[in-house]
Write a structure and sequence with these properties.
Blueprint lengths: L6 E7 L6 H9 L6 E7 L5 H6 L6 E5 L5 H11 L4 E4 L4 E2 L3 H12 L5 E4 L7 H4 L4 E5 L7 H4 L6 H8 L5 E4 L5 E2 L2 H4 L5 H19 L4 H7 L8 H9 L4 H15 L2
Parallel strand pairs: 1-2, 1-4, 2-3, 6-8
Antiparallel strand pairs: 4-7, 5-9, 6-7
């Protein structure tokens, strides 16, 4: 019988006190998972305290200052003992062993080089690949760690780019639940959170598409853009048609869904 590879689940956490315990408890029930690595990325709430309540059952990496999602994932990859790494946001619910298998079997059976799991099937294709639930062979990520650390919220875009010529499988794990921002934070904070994420993703997207990030930074100035409506107006007024199309097609439509 062929020995199955070990699977490490990496969970980046920033102010996830409301959700992370339930997520970890679900994953601990999955026999396919060899280890759980939770990365506390500068949380200012009770996230770290909750993670420590699982001491001995999970591995914990903690930073006092927020480093960004890309940095957190890279730190988890470096610590992982598994041959396969799964990235999972700290607000995925009802995680079951069949979800873990669905994400990893295509790698094990050499049907894919990367597997992305999404709970959203109604939005246009390009945006489904922004999911935070995905699996890779660890060895395929090691050469990219330095760049992954710098990607912040653009990490999914960067990963999609470096695997674009490889076999990527998209799956819809039945029963898996993923909370959107408007479900996990006060409504008054949602627009700013989306704007910040938009800017970081746009900078990474510009980089992988060959556009100088400085151009995006100048256009998307958070000191001038305060609302999603202001963001739309800024994009509509762009004279650079290439950048306008890039932001409309790959980013703006995603955040309007």
């Amino acid at each position: 019988m062929t020995k199955l590879p070990k699977i490490s689940v990496i969970i980046p956490c920033f102010n996830e006190e409301m959700w992370v315990a339930e997520v970890i408890r679900s994953i601990l029930k999955c026999p396919s998972v060899s280890e759980i690595i939770a990365v506390n990325d500068g949380s200012t709430d009770e996230t770290l305290k909750i993670l420590k309540s699982f001491q001995g059952k999970i591995k914990i990496i903690s930073y006092k200052k927020n480093q960004g999602k890309g940095y957190a994932l890279a730190a988890g990859i470096e610590k992982a003992k598994g041959e396969i790494v799964i990235f999972m946001d700290a607000h995925h619910f009802n995680v079951q062993n069949n979800h873990i298998k669905a994400l990893t079997v295509p790698l094990i059976e050499n049907q894919a080089d990367a597997v992305l799991g999404t709970t959203v099937s109604l939005i246009p294709g390009p945006f489904r690949s922004f999911t935070g639930f995905r699996a890779y062979w660890k060895k395929d990520l090691l050469l990219h760690l330095a760049k992954i650390k710098k990607t912040k919220f653009g990490v999914e875009i960067y990963l999609n780019e470096i695997f674009k010529e490889k076999r990527v499988k998209l799956i819809y794990p039945p029963g898996l639940i993923h909370l959107a921002k408007e479900q996990k934070m006060p409504l008054s904070e949602v627009p700013v959170a989306y704007l910040n994420q938009f800017i970081e993703m746009s900078q990474m997207l510009a980089q992988v598409k060959g556009i100088k990030p400085q151009k995006i930074k100048k256009i998307l100035n958070p000191k001038k853009i305060k609302t999603l409506e202001g963001l739309r107006e800024t994009v509509q007024k762009l004279k650079n048609k290439e950048i306008m199309k890039l932001l409309k097609d790959y980013i703006l439509s995603y955040f309007e869904k």
